[in-house]
Write a structure and sequence with these properties.
The complex is a heterodimer. By secondary structure, chain A is mainly α. Chain A has 16 helices and 2 strands. In chain A, a hairpin with a 2-residue loop joins β1 and β2. The longest helix of chain A has 27 residues. Chain B has a two-stranded antiparallel ribbon. The chains are: A mainly alpha, B mainly alpha.
């Protein structure tokens, strides 16, 4: 890195960002400009708040996933944890007749953290591969939710909770921005600070970059992993409650199935699939980009049955760009490999 | 070291390896017998009847094939999350072509064969796209196939606009309903496919190279294996198997849709791992995977017969996956400890002369985990 500072490409490199955040921002701006040129009518401030609205839940989910991906793992259980925590909180509230606007968020966060312990035990305790461990816990958590907690659609939330879901921070261009944006932004800023400024945060990167080196440097890998998976569970639980509050009903069949979109947003945001890289800013841009694309497809009148294919192409491009740029960055260390495969 | 003792030692090593694989497959066979006995005792009027066993045999092939596709890619150290999407896209392509041929007056058999050929081509095409992304663009397999999963299923939805296609040729439909000697045709096809895939993975150069690449990419490089070419073939093979599963899926449901079997992906991975596939590569227990598919389907059917909620089955599925893996890791720790304790310390330069050890069996769980976090 130090020789780059002296090179004339320094400014470009800095603009680009450590994890291609600059590139991502450029793509988002380009997309907005393209929409403005080709379909000026659709570009409105209302679109901005729609994009923000559809990003809130994914952003909250993505924070936990980011933590895990930086540490070199992958998680497919977080949506199951999210809906388990949120749905069982609502069921609990209804059964004891509690009506409160803030407690359910705390309760869901705690339930999420408790389920996170399962993942922590499997990954840090039994040293299972993270994909397999979270695949197993996804089945267990989702099955337990549907078999033991409930499988019915709850169409109305307790009034105070419903009120929080409907509360508007502002109305921009005829589209409401929920107050729930605020806690999610605060959480994002908090996580970003923890990742950059604390010993724990640096340990997360170290474990993801090279677990063995991290261990030899004196980092307690198991302990850090335990905290990571419990924290990710807490993020998921909170995100689940945000989802339930925003949609205004509780259905145990929602969220599960969207995990791959969230993972894609995190990876497009520059988190390395091999661990040790990633930032909250990048993830925020990745989530916004996917939401923007989905939103503009609707506004540009692209038929609904093409949306999935389109999103697939975007994910593919994002993942490919990240893989290529990482490869270029690592070129020097890969001299041996290229000479062998050439 | 005399040549006879080297030969004897390599024979013992090979025998131990065979026993190791056969051991797991054998255990699965015992587990299958155990599951059948338990459910037969719990539900003697329904479970052990020929009709019920036949219905299990009808349901197994498609999911077993998907698990085999996962096992093939896993043994190369990767994974293919796009199998279900590939299966659906292939089945849709087959349905589109054969329905068009039928309506233009082509004989039923010809339309069926053409449809199956198109499905296999589409499957191999999808696999090649995955292979290119993994081998040439060098995207992590889990992310590359995650992206293509969305892409392929998106294409399938776009092609059909979400509506199922009906009116498949009778010859394809027959695969889903007919029996030979009481056993469904599709199950016979699974047996043939299992033998073929087993032969490819264990008796051909390609299979050896796939497993080698999975066991250690670096070692494969030093052996002069062109890894990118091997990976291309691996994912093409996986795509072809998925396409075959797609044909059986459309034969059984008598239609082709874009969103069939959306719950199959996680189940297929569970089966592959339960069958003894090492998620980090280097092992291809094909027969074990097929038996594991039957075990899980038997449990599912047994639960059904006892009127246990399918959600409980989902819990059991997750538990089985986790418990099998935990036991595997523990066993790995135990065997590597025993090996360390019973093996003579190697002489100086032993690594240069002795035959290469198979890393996945010998590495300690800690390094397996470390490799997992860097490669997963």
């Amino acid at each position: 890195m130090s020789d780059l500072i002296r090179s004339p490409r320094f400014d470009l490199v800095r603009l680009r960002g450590r994890n291609n955040e600059g590139v991502l921002l450029g793509i988002i701006v380009l997309l907005v400009v393209l929409i403005a040129i080709f379909s000026p009518g659709t570009l409105s401030i209302g679109m901005f708040s729609d994009v923000l609205r559809s990003s809130v839940v994914n952003m909250a989910l993505a924070l936990g996933v980011l933590l895990i991906i930086i540490s070199g793992g992958i998680d497919v259980s977080f949506t199951a944890i999210a809906i388990f925590a949120a749905y069982s909180t609502v069921v609990l509230m209804r059964s004891i007749g509690l009506d409160n606007g803030i407690l359910p968020f705390l309760a869901a966060t705690v339930i999420g953290a408790l389920i996170g312990i399962v993942n922590a035990v499997l990954v840090a305790g039994f040293k299972l591969q993270t994909l397999i461990a979270t695949l197993g816990s996804q089945g267990i958590v989702r099955g337990a939710l549907l078999a033991f907690v409930g499988s019915v659609y709850i169409s109305s939330l307790p009034p105070a909770l419903a009120q929080v879901g409907d509360a508007r921070l502002a109305t921009i261009g005829g589209s409401a921005v929920s107050v729930l944006v605020i806690p999610v932004i605060l959480l994002a800023i908090g996580l970003s600070a923890v990742l950059r400024k604390t010993m724990f945060g640096r340990s997360v990167y170290a474990i993801g970059g090279a677990p063995e080196s991290a261990r030899r440097a004196g980092i307690r890998v198991g302990q850090v992993q335990t905290i990571i998976y419990i924290a990710a569970g807490a993020f998921s639980g909170f995100a689940g409650m945000v989802h339930v509050a925003l949609v205004g009903h509780a259905s145990p069949f929602e969220l599960v199935g969207t995990e791959l979109t969230v993972i894609a947003a995190v990876v497009i945001g520059g988190a390395s699939d091999t661990g040790g890289r990633g930032s909250v800013q990048g993830v925020a841009l990745g989530v916004l980009l996917l939401a923007l694309i989905q939103n503009s497809l609707v506004r540009l009148g692209v038929p609904g049955f093409w949306h999935t294919a389109f999103v697939g192409v975007v994910i593919l491009l994002g993942v490919a760009i990240q893989a290529q740029s990482r490869r270029r960055r690592n070129k020097r260390s890969a001299i041996l490999e290229s000479s062998v495969t050439a | 070291m005399s040549p006879t003792s080297t030969a004897a030692r390599s024979f013992i090593a090979r025998a131990r390896r065979t026993l190791d694989v056969a051991g797991h497959t054998g255990n699965l066979g015992l587990l299958l017998v155990g599951v059948i006995v338990v459910f037969s005792l719990l539900n003697p009027t329904i479970f052990p009847t020929p009709l019920n066993l036949q219905s299990i045999a009808y349901a197994v092939p498609e999911i077993a094939l998907l698990a085999l596709a996962i096992a093939v890619t896993m043994s190369s150290g990767g994974i293919d999350l796009s199998i279900v999407a590939t299966a659906n896209l292939s089945a849709l392509a087959a349905a589109t072509v054969s329905i068009a041929l039928l309506s233009s007056g082509t004989p039923d058999d010809v339309a069926a064969v053409a449809g199956i050929a198109v499905a296999l081509l589409v499957g191999i095409g999808c696999g090649l796209i995955n292979g290119l992304l993994v081998a040439k663009v060098r995207i992590a397999p889990i992310l590359a196939t995650l992206a293509t999963m969305t892409l392929f299923s998106g294409l399938a939805v776009a092609l059909t606009r979400g509506t199922p296609l009906y009116g498949l040729p009778n010859a394809i439909l027959a695969l889903g309903v007919q029996t030979v000697a009481i056993i469904p045709v599709s199950f016979w096809l699974l047996v043939v496919a299992t033998i073929l895939i087993w032969a490819v993975m264990n008796r051909t150069g390609l299979g050896l190279r796939i497993i080698l690449v999975g066991a250690s990419p670096e070692a494969a490089d030093y052996t002069g294996i062109r890894r990118s070419r091997v990976l291309l073939s691996t994912y093409a093979l996986s795509g072809a198997i998925a396409a075959f599963a797609g044909i059986l899926m459309s034969a059984r449901s008598a239609s082709a849709t874009a969103d069939y079997g959306s719950s199959y992906l996680l189940l297929a991975i569970t089966i592959a791992v339960l069958g003894g596939t090492n998620p980090l590569g280097g092992r291809a227990p094909i027969v074990g995977v097929s038996i594991a598919a039957i075990v899980l389907q038997a449990i599912s059917s047994g639960f059904n017969g006892l009127h246990i909620s399918p959600y409980v089955y989902q819990i059991v599925q997750g538990l089985i996956l986790v418990v099998v893996l935990v036991v595997e890791v523990r066993r790995g720790r135990l065997t590597s400890w025993i090996q360390r304790m019973t093996k003579r310390p190697p002489a100086d330069g032993a690594a240069l002369t002795s035959e290469p050890s198979r890393s996945p069996n010998i590495t300690s769980p800690d390094t397996i985990h470390a490799a997992g976090t860097t490669r997963a």
